[in-house]
Amino acid sequence: MTDTAPVYYLSWEELHRDTRNLARKLVDTPWKGVISIARGGLVPGAILARELNLRVVDTLCIASYDHDRQGELNVLKAVEGDGDGYLLVDDLVDTGVTARAAMQLLPKATFVAIYAKPAAIELTTHHVREFAQETWIHFPWDITHVYSEPLIK
Ligand SMILES: O=P(O)(O)OC[C@H]1O[C@H](OP(=O)(O)OP(=O)(O)O)[C@H](O)[C@@H]1O
């Protein structure tokens, strides 16, 4: 993130609404379950599981060694099988590095993301909102309510 990059503060309500809107696009398929890409996909995965009445929930745990440059990825916990019939969910597809790695591990899973940026938007089967590539999104679990000074005191 550069100092001049636009920043978007996403609320819990927005995330919940957007994830429910994603669920509406998925109701016609009898999914076997949901696989969340941890950690960003955890909350969206819980909401999708609730909306789509899915009781099988799993995690694919991937960490990037270098957060800013999205360097090499480390698979901390994989999922057995090829993902056939499962929803593979993440909060955001940005450069696509994480999604590509996840889809290599689970080639038959259906990858969805709540939010997408143009560089890798084609990787998602469904997403809800697109953000500009340079926008830095703060997810609700990264932020807290703080007092804001009035403009004129
Ligand atoms: O398309 P990409 O450029 O790979 O970026 C998207 C990934 O980045 C974020 O995860 P992050 O690396 O912040 O890890 P975390 O979810 O564990 O916090 C997000 O949750 C996606 O998994």
UniProtKB/TrEMBL annotation:
<dbReference type="InterPro" id="IPR000836">
    <property type="entry name" value="PRTase_dom"/>
</dbReference>
<dbReference type="GO" id="GO:0006166">
    <property type="term" value="P:purine ribonucleoside salvage"/>
</dbReference>
<keyword id="KW-0472">Membrane</keyword>
<dbReference type="Pfam" id="PF00156">
    <property type="entry name" value="Pribosyltran"/>
</dbReference>
<keyword id="KW-0808">Transferase</keyword>
<dbReference type="GO" id="GO:0046872">
    <property type="term" value="F:metal ion binding"/>
</dbReference>
<dbReference type="GO" id="GO:0032264">
    <property type="term" value="P:IMP salvage"/>
</dbReference>
<feature type="domain" description="Phosphoribosyltransferase">
    <location>
        <begin position="11"/>
        <end position="147"/>
    </location>
</feature>
<keyword id="KW-0660">Purine salvage</keyword>
<dbReference type="InterPro" id="IPR029057">
    <property type="entry name" value="PRTase-like"/>
</dbReference>
<dbReference type="GO" id="GO:0005829">
    <property type="term" value="C:cytosol"/>
</dbReference>
<keyword id="KW-0479">Metal-binding</keyword>
<dbReference type="GO" id="GO:0004422">
    <property type="term" value="F:hypoxanthine phosphoribosyltransferase activity"/>
</dbReference>
<dbReference type="GO" id="GO:0000310">
    <property type="term" value="F:xanthine phosphoribosyltransferase activity"/>
</dbReference>
<dbReference type="InterPro" id="IPR023747">
    <property type="entry name" value="Xanthine_Guanine_PRibTrfase"/>
</dbReference>
<keyword id="KW-0460">Magnesium</keyword>
<dbReference type="GO" id="GO:0032265">
    <property type="term" value="P:XMP salvage"/>
</dbReference>
<keyword id="KW-0328">Glycosyltransferase</keyword>
<protein>
    <submittedName>
        <fullName>Xanthine phosphoribosyltransferase</fullName>
        <ecNumber>2.4.2.22</ecNumber>
    </submittedName>
</protein>
<keyword id="KW-1003">Cell membrane</keyword>
<dbReference type="GO" id="GO:0032263">
    <property type="term" value="P:GMP salvage"/>
</dbReference>
